[in-house]
Amino acid sequence: MAGITRFGMEVQRWRRQRGISLAVLSEMTSFSESYLSKVLHGHRSLPLSLATEIDTVLGAKGALLRLAEREEGLTRWDAMRPSQLPPALADFVGRTEYLRTLDTSLRIATPPGSAITTVIEGAPGIGKTALALHWAASLVERFPAGCLYADLQGFDVEQPRQPDAVLDEFLGALGVARAAEDSLSQRTARLRSVLASRPMLVVLDNAASYEQVRPLLPGAGSIVIITSRVHLSGLALHASATHVRLSPLRLHEGVQLLGELAGRARVAAETANAELIVRHCGGLPLAVRIAGEHLATQPHLTLREMAHQLGPQSSRLDFLASADETTNVRGVIDLSYRALKPAEATMFRLLGLHAQTPISVGAAAALAGTDIACGTQSLSALANSHLVESSPGQRVKMHHLVQLYATERVQAEETPAQRDGAVDRLLRWYCASAANATNVLAPDWAGRAIAVDTAGISPQQFAFDDHAGAMAWCETELDAIASVTHLAATRGISSAWMLPSTLQPFFYLTKKWSAWIDSASQALHCAKAAADDVGVARCQQNLAAVLSELGKTDDALTLLQDATRLHHNRGDDEGQGWTAVTLGLTYTRIDRPDDAIAAFTEAARLFERGGLELSVAVVHAMLGTVYGRVDRLDDGIDCLHEAIRIAKRHDSPLAESLARHHLGALYLHSEQPQRALPQLDRALAIRRIQGERWGYADTLVVRAEALTAMGEHELSMECLREAVAVFDDLKDPRGLELHATLATNPSFLDTEP
C-alpha cells in the first residue's frame, strides 16, 4: 500500500489550519472525495490542475502548487533515470593512495555554482579510465538521479567527438527535447538547468582539451570526473578542478595485477620472475594486462619464459601488442605521438636516440638542433602530453616503453645523416659543457687538444668562481656522459673520447674511483678505435692518474711513458705537461724523489712556455712537497709560497687550498706543527666553501697529525672522526684505516651503555 505523499501531508496540514475536512475540500473543488484520497495517498498520479484548485481553495499562495510540480517532475525523471556508467574492472588492484586523494578532492571547497571536478591524467596506458570507473562506481549511490558517461575519443584515430553531439545524447537521456535551431550554448544551458534540480555523476572519458569538455560541465551539486592523457590547464583555471596525475604501478601492485589475470598461485610460485615481468613492463597497467593475458591464454608458458621473451628491448613492444589498438602499447603511444605538432614530434623522436638517463633542456635542445627557448617549449608540450616527465634539476626523462617507441620512430622517420647530426650535436654540447665545468675546477687543464666546435649549440655556462655549480653539474651528468659517449662511439664519431676525458679534474677532486676507472677506460677505448694519437695519449694519462692513485704504479708508468712519446710527437705541450705531472706524482708514491723532481720541473717548463700560470702553481705545490722529502726545506717552502701567490693573483681558491695543504704538511714534516696549523686551517676553510669534500677530509687527517704533535689529542680525535664520516660517505677505503686508528685510541671508546 502506498503511503501518503509529501504533497498529501502538506494538504492535510493546510486543511487542519483552515478546519476543512476532505469531504468539504471535495465539495469546494471539482474532484470527488474518493479520487482526492487516492491522489493524496499516491494511488493516482497528481494532475497539476488538481494541485492548482487545492492551492487556491486553501489559500496556499502557490506553495502547494510548487510542491506538486517538483513531485511530478521527480516522478517523471525516475522513470528515465540514466545509468550510463560502464562496468568497472573486476580485477582492479592497488591505487590506494590515489583513491584516498580522489576522496579528499570531494571535500575541497568549490566556487559557488561550480560542480566538484576532478581530472585524472597521465601517460598512455597508465590506467586512467580504470581508476575513474572504479572510483565512480563507489560514488553512484550518492546520485539517485543517475549518472552520465561519454567517451570523448580525444585521441582516437578518428576526430574527437564534438561537444554538441555529446550534449544531444545527454539531453536525450534526460528526456529533454531540443529544437533543431538550438545553439550549443542553449543546449549547455538546458543541461545545466536540468542538473541543477537533479545533480548527477558525470564522467567524461578521454578528453582532448578544455574546449571539448567546457560545454558539458554542470553546475553546483554534481560531480564531474574527467580523464585525459594531456594536462587540461583550463579546468584548473576556470573550474577549480583537482588534477590527479597517475604514475606506473608499484612493483607489488603490478605483481598483484599479474596474479589476478594469470592466476595467483601461478604467480606466487614464480615471484621473482613475476617481478621481472612487471619491471620489463615498466609498471604500465596496460603492458602488465597484456602480459597477464598472454599467460592466461598459454597455461604451459612459465613466467620465467615470459620474462625471457620480454628481455630484449628491441622486440619488447612487439610482444606487448595485439590486434586491438586499445590493448596495444605501441598503438596507444602512437595516438599521443600523432597529436604532436611537427617541432614537438621531432624533439620526441630524437630523444629516442638518447639512453633512458634524464636529459637537461640544454642537451635536448642541442639534440634537436634548436635553441633553448624552442627546446623548452617542445619539452613542455611533451610533458603536457605525458610523453616525458620532469626530473630533478630541470631535466626530463621518458618511461622506458615510451623511449622504445621513440627509438622506433627516429629509426623510421630520420635519415642516417640526420641521426648522426643529432648525436654529433649532443656530443659537442656535453663536451663543451664539461670543458666549461672543469675549466672552473682546473683552469687551463684541457688545452687545445680538447677544443670543441660550439657551432649550432648553446653549452652550459659557469661563472669563473662557481665551483659548487661546476661540481654539481659533473655529479648530475655522470651517467648521461657515459651514455652519450657510448652512443657517439657506436655511431663512429671519432671525437667521442673527448667527453669522458674532460672529467679528469672532477674525478681528481672527488676520488670517485670506480666511476673514474670506467670513464677513463671508456675514453681510451674510443680513442684507440678512432686511431687518434692525441686522444690516446690524453686518455692514457687520465687512466694512469687513477691507476697511480690506487697503487697500480707499474701499469701507470707504462701508460705514461707511451703517452709522453705520443705527446712529444704531436707537439701537445699541455698534454705532455699533465703527463709529466702524473709521472711526478707516481714517482713520489714509489719513493723516487729525484725522478719526481725532474718530472715536475719538466711540467713547469712546459706550462711556463705555454703561459699557463695556474698550472705552474699546481706543479709548484706538488714540487714543494717532494723537496721536503729530500731535506730541501727552503726550496720546498719557496715553491709553495710561489704557488700561493700565483693562486691568489688569479683568484683560484682550488690552487690556493692545494698549496696551503702541502705547505702545512711540509711544516709538519719538518716538525713545525705550530706553523703547519694556520696553513691547514686556511686550506680547510677554502675546501669547505668550495665543496671539495675529499680534499677537505684529507686536510683534516693532516691537521689531526699536527694536533697530535702538539699534544692536543682530543682535538686530534675530533678531526679524525670528521674525516672518517666524509670518507665513509664517499665510500673511500681510507675510512677503514681511520676507523682502525680511532678504535685503538682509548679516547674514542664509547663508555655509554
TrEMBL record:
This chain's source organism reads Prauserella endophytica
Pfam families on file? HTH_31 (PF13560), TPR_12 (PF13424)
What is this protein called in UniProt? Tetratricopeptide repeat protein
Q: Which residues form a coiled coil?
A: none
Q: Where is the HTH cro/C1-type domain?
A: 11-65
Domain of life of the native organism:
Bacteria
